[in-house]
Design brief:
With about 625 residues, the chain is an all-beta fold. The chain is about 0% helix and about 40% strand.
């Protein structure tokens, strides 16, 4: 997206820490969890796994192995791993015993989060019979030369695992039976597939499965803000899982190489075979330059606020009761397959193979809602009865002659071509006056769009992006000028030549817990670069409530009370990992210390390297609670 907008809430108040009698040691001061060191190359000092925990708190007396740290580090501790390439890690706890830890042990490279962070590569990890482990900042490498070795495998009898900000190559991440798993900010790319190894897991970006339907499902799986690119099999596979959130990811599988097609497999952006379990929510993601979706037998499936760009196949839903497909944007598809559309609802004949093992379908598409989407084509096969789904307020731009069900004009569908602010530069927000602008169904739309921009009641845009509201209830239209139509980091579609060595800039932003408030930025170029950061700030005070609002953030009518430009910053990026930057904001005026007030910060970033440039815009909305 050209403008990544997150809705952030900032509440002022006091936090009271209540210490109960007897909760502290006799000295009255609680001991902080230790920071421990692993250094197989003895960079800081001679390593030995015979060192005590106290000795391992010094980088000059580190442990040698990650395994020993896994078996020894106390709950809440941090393990810093010195530079080097570490062999495959089999981190399995004793079978049948309760997990050793009660709080997360964090493994990270030495200096993680600083410009001097060391590079640590690990040739695959397998977890089992364990809990409360966090890994961040590593490069995990899987392989399939002789047998499939995942880059990271989370196996049975495991829970409470977090993988954050890692690079994953060769093979992907596999969760086979573990619950309460967070996969956030990882960069998964260039997986491989060996035809001699007959496994569905081989080459997938993420494989999240609770085993067969006879097993209890895995639960509480969060897949947030990852990049998954150029996978040899599916981007994300889900089976026998419940309470799954897939949000804010950038997924591009690419087009399957002919060598893999010869193996009899195909690549999907996502595939669900979920044994009737759910819910699963897929929202605020960008899927681009890839293939199809196969989403089957999932209860309470929500697909909302997603961009689907330059895909070669349909999104197929089958046996997904109560599915909701709302406010998504499909654009630039049909590049390879004539007649390819956007969304198709599918059914099955009674007694067909779908009702037999291993599928055993009994569900239908009953209760499905399809609304407020920008689609090339919408189709429904003959096994889905018309009373099983509701479909309205979609903008459909494909040729009607290519579809058996192109929509329902009586239900508010719009048959026209959308007009975007600047599709060529990646801005898929509708311009004011475009077909679909202000024509969405407010009762079915999510409260905010994929950037966090609130959808004003009575003025809902069709698609994933909403034109932001101005004071007085009208909507802002950003100027579609060359200076504002900025690249968003989404690569060109497959088959389109791109300049070698193109510069890319990734940006993540969040509110830091500080007084006065500050914006915490994470920046990364794909190579060494220099970034100039300019910022402007607008603050609004509430002066009344809006009628008919659907969420607390839409109840306030706002008046601007302050505008400011912040000092321009410059930062040099290493081009290897995310660099961190804290951007302080002016103190809050007294008028803004009340609930319902709003601060909007707009950041403009210009990255430069060897005469090349890339621009990004980030907008953050900070609501007072």
């Amino acid at each position: 997206m050209g403008s990544n907008m997150r809705v952030l809430r900032y509440g002022l108040g006091l936090c009271a820490a209540i210490l109960l009698a007897g909760a502290l040691p006799s000295g009255g001061i609680a001991a902080s969890p230790p920071t421990l060191f692993v250094d197989q190359g003895s960079i800081g000092g001679r390593c030995s796994d015979s060192y005590t925990i106290s000795q391992a708190e010094s980088p000059s007396t580190p442990w040698c192995t990650i395994l020993h740290a896994f078996e020894t580090a106390p709950s809440g501790s941090t393990v810093e791993v010195r530079a080097g390439t570490y062999p495959f890690q089999l981190l399995h706890g004793p079978y049948g015993r309760p997990p050793r830890l009660s709080d997360y042990v964090t493994f990270e490279p030495f200096g993680y989060g600083t410009k001097d962070a060391e590079i640590v590569t690990i040739d695959g990890v397998s977890l089992a019979n364990t809990a409360f482990l966090r890994f961040r900042g590593f490069h995990f490498i899987g392989s399939d030369s002789a047998t499939e070795i995942p880059a990271f495998n989370i196996y049975l009898h495991t829970a409470h695992v977090q993988l954050i900000d890692n690079q994953i190559t060769g093979q992907g991440i596999e969760d086979y039976g573990a619950s309460d798993v967070l996969l956030e900010g990882n960069d998964i790319h260039d997986t491989t597939y060996n035809c001699a190894i007959d496994t569905q897991l081989n080459g997938a970006g993420m494989y999240l499965i609770g085993g067969s339907a006879a097993n209890p499902p895995i639960t509480d799986i969060r897949v947030l803000d990852n990049r998954i690119e150029a996978t040899a099999q599916d981007g994300i596979d889900v089976a026998n899982a419940a309470n799954v959130l897939i949000q804010g990811n950038d997924i591009s599988t690419g087009v399957q190489p002919p060598a893999y097609e010869a193996c009899g497999y195909h690549v999907d952006e996502m595939q669900f075979e979920n044994d009737g379990r759910g819910p699963i929510t897929v929202q605020d993601n960008t899927f681009h330059d890839g293939t199809q979706f196969i989403l089957r037998n999932t209860a309470d499936l929500t697909i909302a606020n997603n961009l689907m760009l330059r895909l070669t196949g349909w999104m197929q839903l089958m046996a997904d009761p109560d599915a909701k497909v709302v406010n998504n944007t499909w654009w630039g598809g049909d590049q390879f397959n004539a007649g390819t559309g956007s969304l198709i609802l599918r059914g099955y004949a009674p007694g067909s193979s779908w009702t037999q093992p291993p599928f055993d379908y009994t569900n239908t598409m009953a209760g499905t809602i399809v609304a407020n989407n920008i689609m090339r084509l919408f189709d429904v096969d003959s096994y889905v009865d018309r009373d099983q789904y509701e479909e309205s307020n979609n903008l459909i731009y494909g040729p009607a002659s290519n579809s058996t069900a192109t929509g329902d004009p009586g239900g508010g569908d719009v048959f026209a071509t959308p007009m975007f602010v600047d599709a060529a530069s990646g801005d898929y927000q509708l311009v004011r006056g475009s077909p679909g602008s202000g024509e969405g169904d407010a009762m079915l739309a999510p409260a905010s769009d994929m950037r966090g921009v609130p959808r004003p009641a009575g003025d809902i845009d069709i698609g994933a992006l909403q034109a932001p509201a101005l004071v007085g209830g009208s909507s802002a239209q950003p100027p579609a000028t060359a200076g504002e139509s900025l690249p968003v980091g989404v690569p060109p579609r497959a088959g389109t030549p791109s300049l070698p060595g193109a510069l890319r800039l990734a940006v993540r932003a969040q509110l830091a817990s500080r007084r006065p408030p500050a914006i915490r930025l994470r920046l990364r170029c794909n190579e060494r670069c220099r970034v100039l950061i300019g910022a402007s700030l607008d603050r609004f005070v509430s002066w009344g409530r809006a009628e008919g609002a659907r969420s607390s953030q839409q109840r306030w009518r706002l008046r601007r009370v302050q505008a400011a430009r912040l000092r321009t910053r410059a930062v040099a990026l290493s081009g290897r990992r995310f660099d961190w930057l804290l951007l302080s904001l002016p103190p809050l005026p007294r008028a803004l210390h009340s609930r319902g007030n709003l601060t909007v910060v707009r950041l403009r970033l210009l990255g430069r390297a060897d005469g090349r440039t890339v621009r990004r815009v980030v907008a953050l909305r900070i609501w007072m609670r």
